[in-house]
Specification:
254 residues; alpha+beta; 6-stranded mixed sheet; 5-stranded mixed sheet; 14 strands; 24% helix; globular
Length: 254
């Protein structure tokens, strides 16, 4: 049996956390590996086992808490576990309660894990382009502060996501970002006419730094370019596959 891949960040040393890839699960076919997506067409029993394995690899004995992610900027404080069927529609979650494993699902979007060790507050955010420009990282920081965290003490890590070299967008996409801030042009590299490559990871790091986070690590792992290690929505779309798996990032307090 293959153990799950767990990618960790030195910025979060001392905090139970991990960005998991697709290895180490029991799914088969196009979902092969550690698919944790409740919304995928994979077997519910198989997904539940994969979620159990992922949680045990990061915070043994903890209860996994995830969201119904909608590419928003909404963040919620989690004070007690909730049933999967009652997951809030949001894209970031925060807790100061030991024994809860906060989980964010991705398949090209950027997972962000955060911690204020001194306050004992952790957070996790799902930053696709919509959530990123909408301010999901700002929302998770504000919600952490509500539980006693201090922004200048928060450390953050940005996990596996689609990289600039793999993320072609059209001119209208670029204009959404440059209308918000003309300096956002630096996150794009022009390619063929009317298109550019977008650096989602760098943009998320920029938003965190601009919001006052002093310690940030980006893992620099491209989900699209590494099918052996990661699921990718865009890669599955380009291959004409009918569905795709999701990986998970987890953080919690022991």
């Amino acid at each position: 049996m293959t153990d799950p891949d767990v990618f960790r960040s030195s910025a979060l040393d001392g905090i139970a956390h991990g960005f998991l890839g697709r290895r180490g699960g029991v799914s088969q076919g196009i979902h092969a590996g550690l698919n944790v997506g409740l919304g995928s067409e994979d077997s519910a029993e198989v997904v539940a086992e994969n979620r159990r394995r992922a949680t045990e690899a990061v915070l043994p004995g903890a209860q996994l808490v995830t969201l119904y992610q909608v590419h928003s900027a909404e963040a919620v404080a989690v004070l007690a576990p909730f049933e999967a069927a009652l997951r809030p529609h949001a894209d970031a979650l925060v807790t100061d309660r030991p024994g809860l494993a906060l989980g964010i699902l991705t398949a090209d979007c950027a997972p962000v894990l955060l911690a204020d060790r001194e306050a004992g507050v952790v957070g996790a955010a799902h930053a696709g382009w919509k959530g990123a420009i909408g301010g999901v990282t700002d929302s998770v920081l504000t919600t952490m502060e509500m539980l006693g965290a201090r922004r200048d003490r928060i450390a953050a890590a940005v996990g596996p996501c689609i990289a600039r070299a793999s993320y072609e967008v059209d001119r209208g996409f670029v204009e959404r970002f440059t209308r918000d801030d003309p300096d956002n042009e630096r996150f794009f590299t022009d390619t063929r006419e009317g298109h550019a490559q977008f650096d989602l990871e760098a943009y998320v790091v920029h938003r965190l730094a601009s919001a006052g986070v002093r310690r940030i690590e980006a893992l620099g792992l491209d989900t699209y370019a590494d099918p052996e290690r990661f699921f990718s929505y865009r890669r599955a779309t380009h291959r004409g596959e009918p569905d795709y798996g999701r990986q998970i990032a987890i953080i919690g307090l022991a």
